[in-house]
Design goal:
The protein is α/β, with parallel strands linked by helices and about 325 residues long. Helix content is about 45%, strand content about 10%. The two termini are about 20 Å apart.
């Protein structure tokens, strides 16, 4: 399996000097707006959304190989990133269709892969909610959706990052012990599906296959056990074993302590993950600072706590493996400037 020149260039742009993806994520839209509004006790303007994203981008990208932003509020922020940081742009609409079952995704109506590339994207990212255990018609619709995006990225010769987030098809609580027991099979099954060549996915952005709050003996253990440490490591290995494409971990809104502990567990399991795309685990605790004290104080918070958070993640990336091995690309080809 070889990689085309445009996709190779895009992958270089978002990787560090080892071929590891150490990317920050700041493409949150609906969830960020709600969180800011809650802390402010009032409306959040477009100007505020852009200002928040710009502050995160400016302060954190000197410590990242890339930043993931959205074209709705993030294009201005993209100009504030450090010179070492590549750019991924999100293509999907925030949230999903809640008028029918299955959490059906949609794309931003006035954007295309061509337009994202023209706006400066080195790579394109799409998020879908997915479980292998939903009804066949729902999953077939999502499979066709991803195939179309894969073909669009092939036509424009730009890397396609697919993020899939699991859920309970029966409507259960995804933070529960019951869902924690299902999560390893949901993650492994999703990875097995979207690693197939037909989808044209270049990098899978995946969830950690366990909920660390339910790993017995973990520092972030919440008191109810779904897995022993040995079982948790086995789940990491099982999910990784199906991947024929590089995969990176997403932080899924958990705390910095929980995410870094999950990366430690992945390393102990010997999993060949290619990096991270980490958002809220680095900056979400600064939301009240911005909402109540303004951008200047938020930048100060980012320069101390935010940088400390991203450095905690980067420290755990010493165990990550280069993405290029999956593509038959040598280190010289992958890392040449």
């Amino acid at each position: 399996m070889r990689i085309t020149p445009g996709k190779l260039a895009g992958m270089k742009d978002v990787s560090d000097g080892r071929g590891v993806i150490a990317a920050a994520a700041m493409d949150q839209r609906g969830s960020l707006k709600k969180a800011l509004a809650k802390e402010r006790g009032g409306d959040v303007t477009d100007q505020m959304m852009g200002e928040f994203k710009s502050a995160v981008t400016e302060v954190l990208t000197p410590h990242a190989s890339a930043i993931l932003l959205d074209p709705e509020w993030g294009l201005g922020a993209s100009k504030r990133r450090s010179r070492n940081a590549g750019l991924l742009l999100a293509y999907e609409q925030s949230g999903y269709d809640n008028t029918r079952p299955g959490r059906i995704p949609d794309l931003l109506p006035d954007w295309s892969v061509r337009r994202l590339k023209e706006a400066g994207a080195n790579c394109v990212k799409v998020l879908i909610y997915y479980t292998p255990f939903d009804a066949r018609p729902i999953n077939e619709e999502k499979h066709a959706f991803v195939e179309r995006i894969g073909d669009e990225c092939r036509a424009n010769d730009i890397p396609f990052f697919l993020e899939f987030v699991g859920y309970d098809a029966q409507g259960g609580d995804e933070k529960s012990l019951e869902f924690a027991a299902k999560k390893p099979d949901i993650v492994a099954g999703s990875m097995a599906e979207f690693t197939k060549e037909r989808y044209g996915v270049d990098v899978m952005k995946v969830e950690v296959p366990v909920n660390m709050k339910f790993v017995e003996g973990a520092r972030t253990f919440g008191g109810q056990k779904a897995y022993t440490p040995e079982e948790a490591q086995a789940h990491f290995r099982k999910a990784a074993s199906v991947a024929t494409k590089p995969f990176i971990y997403l932080s899924a809104g958990v705390s910095n302590a929980e995410f870094t502990e999950s990366l430690e567990l992945a390393a102990e399991a010997g999993v060949a993950f290619a990096g991270v795309l980490c958002g809220r685990a680095t900056w979400k605790d600064g939301i009240p600072v911005y909402a109540k004290q303004g951008v200047a104080e938020f930048k100060k918070w980012l320069q101390s706590e935010g940088v400390r958070n991203i450095q905690n993640v980067n420290e755990r990336l010493k165990a990550a493996k280069p993405w290029y091995a999956c593509y038959g690309v040598s280190a010289v080809e992958a890392l040449a400037v």
